[in-house]
Structures are given as structure tokens and as C-alpha cells.
């Protein structure tokens, strides 16, 4: 029989245990998971992604951590191999029981770990430009999608050079979908795609293509190259003297420090678009970039918007945890869905509740002597979401990847 | 007319590039019967040697034509002396060892040099054929390929050391009995093959760039070209490079780039089906 | 004496197999099982090459073709059918069929040695380029988008035949894989003990002599090759089911080379060596990915070179002869 006395004792004991528990919790660090390609062909991306992520995590910890607890990051090197993404994503969710997983570069790596983390109720933040379309309540993306990028680029081209565009793209989902957006954008500007070629990821001979471009005489060439083999294009393009004759634009150039690796006489004049370049002169970047260089020296290459998004990803998540007052997944998702916003080196970034993608400033820039010269700033560019395909507020159970109906 | 000329030049360039990337492997395979899976990384090291020394202010041509071959030749010497020699021609052991070496060199380049070395722009200007322009460097690549292959032929055919090399490769036992130092000869040939790979890596660097992983783009094509060439490595490789380079570039011209890649592989398969021991297994047996 | 050693090795194999199937799932945590599942899936693939190369004498640089085809077949079929039973069988049959066609092409022309290696490698790369070029919504088979280099994501897991809602995942998939590995290993050992197995080895040792003794060398090699293709296909099916995912990388040069490395590390000409080599190399790579002591390529590459220089025949034969040496020394000691 439950007497008053035993009841009091019982609740006191429970209270003692829960206080103990809270104390233990307050001292325990928060485990968070990171998977990056720190070796293998994608190392050129992965190294700087991790540097940006590490900087964000260190800054959070130096400022006293989150909810009074330090972040303890479990970092895994996926070695540019999808099989390791699979292993490590499971390990992070099942063994390390982390509060959030961030990382991944290629779309394939994302589509390997996204379903795993969805099934195992572990929040996933992906910080790379990609083809767009993922609609999943458990997933947030800080990267840009190509729809807006190509609209802005083609508009800039039309203002300067003309509307006849020749498209060179990686034979890859990102390249294919970008090419569709380009066709649509050219059409709505009253322009024309006069040529379109797709390259397997390891093709590095472009002689035939360059001759075809010479025959087609477009006003501008727009490339969506992916990976190291395609870099060979620029040297061959310059060797044929084409960099003096036909302007070149790219949505991908710069992601692996090409701007400092390639000779200026080869790459000068290439027009690019992105949310971050080291040359941005906003106050935040004036303080942020020296801090980055203080930690990592100067031989890290050159930062553009792919690695920088990993800094945003971690900072946004931390802000959401502060707002939610817990690392619990659902509470953090709800906090992120309030349209949470953080300032950063590329300007303010805020979450779009409907798509779980981000609003961000976007910059048109031009390669010039080992640096990107900023030409124009577009403020708070919205993520592409054709015909409101994705609306996680109205339909939170969606878990799919839409192919944009272009 | 101009179009035909431009297409012809690109075809020549494709054949020349393939010959360049394969010739070092051909020397090593033809003479030592060793398949060097680190071949792609030898090219990579050649590219880095060139880019780094040119970046340090050395004359471009000395960096390309002297430093790069010398550096990779020295690497080849170490590899032969400390690894290959101890495997006594065991083909399976050499596969594993050179594969390991390949991974090791990639890892070393990624660790020591990183991904951010500045490349070198292709020197020379361009020539104009009506609306087409072609880099003069394209002609230079073709020239280097021709000079390399021809001088190898001349050396093997007419010089005393070339004769010795041929003899030792055809019948090492007999050559040793006749007083030839086959051990030293094998080292010398491995170094020669390595130096040629270094040269190729440097010559192609301005057009292809240099990265730790660049070797993977070369090694498969070089491997297929050399093996399809057959037992008489130099002749066979030159013919195979011409055939494969022509086919893949022609297919890329007529269709999409991926068709060019697949065409090369299909031609290699059909070729080996018809000539199961390579081109020189049946024809040109008396060649070099 | 030989008989005793044969029995001892059989007993050891049964003990290890029993432990893997019964003991490990009872004690290991779920993520350990998940990781071990992958190692065992790949060990089946390693066995297929150990069989084809180590016993059949066929230097195949394209064993990944059958693995990848198995994975793709399973993925495409299961996405369209829902129930995994037929897709699983198709994932074994189709690679076996391809091995039959390719083997006919190769062995009837007496292509051998490195030439065979180049052809199989080229076939593998053709698959790599063709699957890689399948990005875009026009490349679909039924409901399955091929996805180019991104591959096919969200492949449904294996289910209990006829009961699509009973999925075989995590611990269950581990047990299934371990049983499959045991069946393949036991099956190959059993096969080697038959007359056919002796002919296979005879052909490897000396093709001409086997031919002169009246054995059909070509048919023997073809049979070996088809069996190897089917086993690799099975491994590919399990791989796709394990990862819910398959991509052109399974056809790439690096993957195909990895299989060769497993077999060589363990020791060519043994079956257990392939399993040991595969598990060790994979575990080392995983560990390096976690520990991040140094660049994975750097460490692994150096390890292979050292291994070749000091244990050229591979770990299992090397250990065996070391044990034999010790035993001999113990016996000769006073």
C-alpha cells in the first residue's frame, strides 16, 4: 500500500536521480557527427569543407558551447567512397548517437546517407551546391541550387555579350539538370542554346569540343564541369587562344581553389556566381577570413561557396539548438523552421521553412589574377522550388527527391 | 577544307598523347615483363616536378625536358633497386607491389604537396585556319611524341647498347652467359621507362593540369594500349596508340565524348579477340 | 598426415563459420553487425576471384562486372517488383549468363594471361561508362531511374520470400550473409574435392597436359568462370541490399583492383586467404577512416609494398609455412 511517506521518499529519490542525471548531462559534451572526404579524389573539396566546419565548431565551443555543454565532434573520413558513407552514417546514428550529422559532397553521397539518417531519426544537414529537389523533413540544405544561378548568369551574359550560349556540362545529374535550367532560362530571355555537350567525369581531352565551339561561334560558353579531369579544359581552351575570343561562364569553377592553382593567363575573365568569395568586403568577412588564415595558414587554396557552407551549416544548427533549448531532433527542426537566420562571411543566410533550403546573398564575380573580382550582389536569393513542389509545412511527411519539371 | 585539317590535327594529337603516356610503360613491360601499376603516378610525379621547378623560376624547357625526366628516372631507380628487383619477375607480386606504390605516391603527393600547386600555362600562341584556331602547343606535343618514339627505334636498332638491351630481353639467360650484366641492364631499362613517363607527365601538364589523383586518368589507357600492342612492345604500342587514339577521337567527333571512351575499349576487345596475343603477336614479329 | 591436416583445416573452417553465424550476432552490437555484414558481403566477392584466379588460373581483372551487374539487376528488378525473391535470383543468373558469353568468347579463342586481364578490364570499364552516361530522366527501366554517376538510391532490402513486409535488415541480413558466405565457401571446397575440382586444378597447373589427357580445357574453364560470375553476382545483390544503393563505381578500376588486392594479401591459391585478406584490408581502411592518423592511401600503399617484400605469397600461405617451420623446429629440438 502506498503510504504518504513512501510516496515522498519515492519522489525524492526520483528527484535526486533526475538531478544527478541533469548534472551528468550538463558536464557531458554534445556528440555531433561529421563525414567528409579527407582522402581520395574528392580530398580537394573535403579538406576545406572540414576546415570550415571545424572553425564553426571551435568558435561555438570557445564561446562556451551550447546550453552550457561543449560540442564533441565525431569526424570520419569517407575516403571519397560511397561505401564508407554508408558505414559511417550508420555508426554515427547507432553507436555514437549524435545530435546531428553534417557533411557529404556529391549527390550520391547525400542520397546514400539521407535515407539512413531519416530512418534512424538523426538530423542531417548537407552543405553543398547541388541539383536541388530534395524534400525531407529530416534534411536541411545550405547549398545553392542551379536554377537561380543560371538565370542570373544568362542575364549577365545577355547584358554584356549576347544570348547565344554553348553549354558544356558534366554527364552527371547536376550537369543534366543544370543544362535543363539553362535551356529554360535562355528561352525566357529570348536567347538560344546553340550547342550542348556532356562529358563523362574522367574525360580530359577537349580538342573536338573546342573545334565545334569554334564552328558554332556562340556569344558565350557556359560550363558546368565537375571534378579534376574536366579542369584540363581550361588549359586546352587557352592554348587554342579561345579565352581571348569567346567569354566563359561557369557555375562550378572555383570550388577547389582553381583560381590559385591555374595560371592567371588561363583563367582570367571567367565569370562565376556564388554566395561567397574571399574578396567580399563585408565587415563579417573582414574579421572571419583573417581568423581562418590564422588557423590554417595560407596554403589551403582559396575559399568559395562550397566549403563555406559547412561553416553556415554548423552555425545555423547551433543557433537552432540555442533557440530550442535542447538538442532533441524535433525541437531543433521546429526551431530551424521558424526561418532562423545567421550572419556570416557571405552575408546573412536564413532557412526557408517550406523547402528546408536557404535564402542567401549571391554574387556575380570574375576571375582576375588569382582573385575573384565581385561584379554584383543579389540580396537574399530564394531557393528554387518550381511550382512549390516541396512544401514541408503543408506536407511534413514528404520524403523524396523531386526532379524539377522544367 | 579547314575543318578537315583541324579534325586531322586533333586526330594526330590524340594518337600522339596516347603514345606519349604509353611509351614509358611499354619500355618497362617490353623489357622487364613487369606491369607497373604506378605508371600513372610516375606521370603525376613528372608533372609535379615540372610545375614545381618552373614555379620556382627555372627555365620552362629545362624544367620540362630535363628536370621532370631526371626526377622520375631517379624515382624509378629507387623503385627498381628496393622493390622490383626483389620480386624476381613474379608477375603477381609486382602487381600488388606497384599497386601499393601507386596508392603510396598518391597519398604522399596529397600529404606533402596538397591540392593547391599552381600549374603552368601552355606556352606558344595559336595558329589560325579561317574560323578555327589551334594552339601551337598541340604541334609541340605531336613533335615530342614522334621524336621520342623515333629515337627509341633508332637506339634499339642501330646502337650497340640497344642491341645488348634487345638481346638481354629476348633471352636473359643466354645474354648473361655471354657476359652481359643483365641485372644492371634491367635497372637501366626501368630507369629509362620511368624517365619517359616523367617526360610525358611534364609535356601533358600544361594541357591537363596536375593533381595527386591525375594518374588514374592515364593508367588504364596506357595499360590497355601496351598490352594490346603485344609482345614486341615498342612497335606494338605505337601501332595500338595510333589505332586507339584515332578511333576514340573520331568517335568523339562524330558523336558524344562518352562514345569515344567506349569506342576505345570496344576496339581493344575486338582487336584482342582477333589477335589473341596482341598486334605484334601475329604481325611485325621481327620488329622492335 | 596430410589427411589429418585436411581434417584440421576443415574443422577450423566449421568452427569459424559456426562462430560467425551463431555467436557473433548474439554478442555484437547492431552497428558492428552492420559493418561486419559489409565485410562478409565483400568476402564472398573475394572468394569468387580466389576461385576463378587461384584455382581456375584465369587472371580476371573484371570480376567487378559480375558484382556490379548483380547489384544493378537486383536494384532495378526489386524496385519494379517489390518482392525481392525473383530479383535476388536474377541478380545471380544474369551475371552467370554474362560470364558464360564472355567466357565462350575468351576461352574458345584461347586468349590467356594478361590479354584476358585486359579484355575483362575493358568490359568492366564499358559498363562503367555506360551506366555513368545514364543520368537524366529518359534513362529508366520501369520504375527504376538509372541515375548516371549518382547511381540508384533507396533500393529496397531483401524480404522473406512472399512477405514483402518482413524485411531482412541489420542483424537478420548479417545472419543471411554469414550463411551465404559459409555456403559459398563450403560449396567451393566441396567442389574442389570432386573429380571436376581435380580437373580444374590440373588445367591450371598445365593446360596442354590436361588437354592431352583428354579433358576439355575450354569447357572446364568456362564452367569455373560461370560459377565465379554467379558468386560475384550474389555478392553484388547482397551489397545493393546492404547499402540500399548501387552506383557505377562498382565497375571502376579502383574497385576491381581492390578485389585483386584482397586475394593477393590473403594469398593466391587459397580460399580462406581471400576471406582473411578482404576482411583485413576492409577493416584497416575503415579504421584509418575513423582514426585519421595519416592519409589512407599513404598507409595502405606502404603496407602493400612491405607485405609483398616480406610475405610475397600472402598472409595465409605465409602463416602456414611459418607454423610448419615452427613445428619442424620444435620436432628437431632435443
As for the CATH topology of chain B, it is: ABC transporter involved in vitamin B12 uptake, BtuC
Tell me the number of strands of chain C. Answer: 4
Query: Could you give the order of strands across the largest sheet of chain C?
Result: 1-2
Under the CATH scheme, which class of chain B? Answer: Mainly Alpha
Cross-sheet strand order for the largest sheet of chain B: 1-2
* Major β-sheet annotation of chain B: 2 strands, antiparallel
- Counting DSSP E segments of at least 2 residues, the number of strands of chain B comes to 2
Output the radius of gyration of chain C.
20 Å
Biggest interface between chains: A-B, 46 and 46 residues
Structure description:
The complex is a heterotrimer of chains A (406), B (288) and C (334). By secondary structure, chain A is of the alpha/beta class. Chain A folds into two domains: 27-144 and 285-292 and 304-359 and 383-395, Rossmann fold, CATH 3.40.50.2300; 146-274, Response regulator (Rossmann fold), CATH 3.40.50.2300. Chain A has helices at residues 4-27, 43-62, 82-94, 107-119, 146-160, 173-188, 207-216, 232-239, 258-261, 264-267, 283-296, 305-324, 329-336; strands at residues 30-36, 71-77, 100-103, 123-126, 134-136, 139-141, 164-170, 192-199, 220-224, 248-250, 271-274, 341-342, 349-351, 358-367, 372-381, 399-401. In chain A, strands 7, 8, 9, 10, 11, 12, 13, 14 and 15 form a nine-stranded mixed beta sheet that branches. In chain A, strands 2-1-3-4-6 form a five-stranded parallel beta sheet, with helices on both faces. Chain A has a two-stranded antiparallel sheet with strand order 5-16. The longest helix of chain A has 24 residues, at 4-27. The termini of chain A are far apart. The model of chain A is unreliable at 1-24 (pLDDT under 50). Chain B is mostly helical and 288 residues long. Chain B has a single domain, classed as ABC transporter involved in vitamin B12 uptake, BtuC (Orthogonal Bundle). Chain B contains twelve helices and two strands; from the N terminus they run ααααββαααααααα. Chain B has helices at residues 2-32, 39-55, 60-82, 91-112, 136-158, 160-170, 172-177, 182-208, 215-229, 233-254, 257-274, 279-282, and strands spanning 126-129, 132-135. In chain B, a hairpin with a 2-residue loop joins strand 1 (126-129) and strand 2 (132-135). Chain B is globular and about 65 Å long. The model of chain B has no long low-confidence stretch (mean pLDDT 87). Chain C is mainly alpha-helical and 334 residues long. Chain C has one domain (2-252). Chain C has 13 helices and four strands. Chain C has helices at residues 2-27, 30-55, 63-81, 85-107, 113-132, 170-193, 195-205, 207-212, 217-243, 253-266, 272-291, 296-310, 315-332; strands at residues 140-141, 144-145, 159-160, 163-167. In chain C, strand 3 and strand 4 form a beta hairpin. Chain C is globular. Chains A and C meet through strand 2, helix 3, helix 4 and helix 6 of A and helix 2 and helix 11 of C.
